[in-house]
Prior knowledge:
The structure holds two protein chains of two kinds.
Chain A: E1 2-4, H1 9-13, H2 16-30, E2 35-37, E3 51-55, E4 58-62, E5 83-86, H3 91-94, H4 112-117, H5 122-128, H6 132-142, H7 154-163, E6 170-175, H8 184-191, H9 193-207, E7 211-216, H10 221-236, E8 252-257, H11 267-274, E9 298-302, H12 303-307, H13 309-315, H14 317-321, E10 324-325, E11 328-329, E12 331-338, E13 344-349, H15 354-361, E14 371-376, E15 383-385, H16 395-399, E16 409-414, H17 419-433, H18 439-456, H19 462-476, H20 480-484, H21 486-495, H22 502-507
Parallel strand pairs in A: 1-2, 6-7, 6-9, 7-8, 12-16
Antiparallel strand pairs in A: 1-3, 3-4, 4-5, 10-11, 12-13, 14-15, 14-16
Helix pairs in contact in A: 5-9, 5-13, 6-7, 6-9, 8-9, 8-10, 17-18, 17-21, 18-19, 19-21
Chain B: H1 4-17, H2 25-36, H3 43-51, H4 55-64, E1 76-81, H5 84-87, H6 91-102, E2 115-120, E3 132-134, E4 137-139, H7 144-153
Parallel strand pairs in B: 1-2
Antiparallel strand pairs in B: 1-3, 3-4
Helix pairs in contact in B: 1-2, 1-3, 3-4
Amino acid sequence: MKIYLPLDSAAVALGADDIADAIHTHARAKGVTVDLVRNGSRGMVWLEPMAEVETAAGRVAFGPLTLSDVPALFGDLAAHPKALGLTDDLPWMKAQTRLTFARVGVIDPLSLADYKAHGGLTGLTRALGMDKAAMVAEVTNSGLRGRGGAGFPTGIKWKTVSEAQADRKYIVCNADEGDSATFADRMLMEGDPFTLIEGMIIAGLATGATKGFVYIRSEYPIAIQVMQNAVRAAQAEGVLGASVLGTGPAFDIEIRVGAGAYVCGEETSLLNSLEGKRGIVRAKPPLPALEGFMAKPTVVNNVISLASVPVIFERGAEHYKNFGLGRSRGTIPLQIAGNVKHGGLYEIAFGLTLGEIVDKIAGGTASGRPVKAVQVGGPLGAYFPRALFDTPFGYEEFAGKDGLIGHAGLTVFDDSADMLGMARFAMEFCAIESCGKCTPCRIGAVRGVETLDRIARGDADAKPLLADLCNTMKSGSLCALGGFTPYPVMSALTHFPDDFNTMKEAAE
Amino acid sequence: MLDSVEVTSRVGEILNAHKGMEGPLLPILHAIQAEFGYVPQDALPIIAQDLNLSRAEVHGVMSFYHDFRENPAGNHVLKLCRAESCKSMGADRVAAHAQKALGIEWHETTKDGKVTLEPVFCLGLCACGPAAIVDGKLVGRVDEARIDAILGGLK
Lengths: 508, 155
């Protein structure tokens, strides 16, 4: 009997490890031999812990499981109280276009054989037969843009590093996924680590880099462990090492762990941290592509950007490019979070409207109350009111509404949310996490908290001051922390003005 | 507290284990904290000398990152997520409950040295918040009753 049960952090946080123990205990008691595979999550977090049993018809899902549901897994499966039917037929799964996440939740994350059996290493094998310029062109033609949030064309970054002259070059994977509402990097690393490794190797081949680092935040203990094991397995099998797959040049990967600083998700701050320094932002230029890690040419890419590379090489740039809208090509793993009925990861071509995502896919709020606001793009993203729910999900489309898609995380709030409080929190967070290098961020965030407290006390004169401060932070900060904190603050003030009038009304 | 001879010898072993690494300071500090539960002040000059840095530089790095402790934590560490997705599910209410139950604020340890309470900004459990991590174990959908159960279960 083969059972799949996620090792994914969300599943574990909801009790998957206890379910796993119970499965083993019951199997022993019943004298049944169980092959329990700890896989990635299929992304339906409201159904976790979700087990899948392999049957002749396909994999059948059961969830959300409690300990009392375990014995029935060894009985008549059709009569199981938590039976959901075939996983592939679930509406959440059927409507997606899974390119980057095709194997997540399907395979055993640490089995290289399983990885290969599901198309793994096909892209790398093709890349090994191409020259550097052709590899860079493939990525450029795919239209892939940085999935970390900035949306910079990945191919152009690779071209700069590829054409730079240096004795050493590096590939740095930014896995410092600190934005609230984002967990795609984590799920990918926990559920299909070899895809990230393969993407980094291709980046190395295309640019002439021989060493890669994955900088993972310390808040992701399971992802760190899975990635370390995957790198060791890839080294043992000759995928990584002195000669990639025995025919290519050298490429190796080292896993590094962050230390709780949000700003290290910013690429130059991350590079300083990797070098063993304070995670202070560097002024650009020089670009990291020319002077990055140890002042050598360095590709710094997000996990999802790099993990999308293997499928682009496997199926071709054209295939990938055909998904999406406008200048947002390919697919995007939406991370639906916060106060939602159906939260989780949903990979789909760019172009769905915000309303379709929140009302149809997420099914509204978990509390059953009306949706008040959706913060798109993490703590530095704007709050969208229902009036903007017709905005299509794309880089330019959200920028046109004074927002950003960022790393494609969405936090849904019901009507109990206090938007003045959320604006204050954005400034407070910026003050806590500011690296301190530039004044608009270091001082501005503190003044922002004070100014919002004035507004909360009913001082309407503080509102233009807040707008002025936000303008200064936006145009004067060195990086996105100080530069984008105005997005949540100003969007809250603009779209939810009533929340900024409470004290005044009380006084009247 | 640890005696300095013990610190010196263990830090020396950790430094040796990180020889040849590019940018080794964070991995070294992590290893020292894993060994001692915090980064003893006595370790800083030893690291500085080994890496050819000033003691101020090592202190600067250590104090920049939220993870590194100057002093030992309580026997148990409870971290509660304070970020937006968890807030949308009532994290502020849950945190206030935990602070009241423990009688401490953020970054403090109970008088009996049993529990340290810390904020964390995102554990990637944003679709099953509010989230917590107790002595390294992840917990989702934390409410007031869950806090009481967690605290009641700590030895």
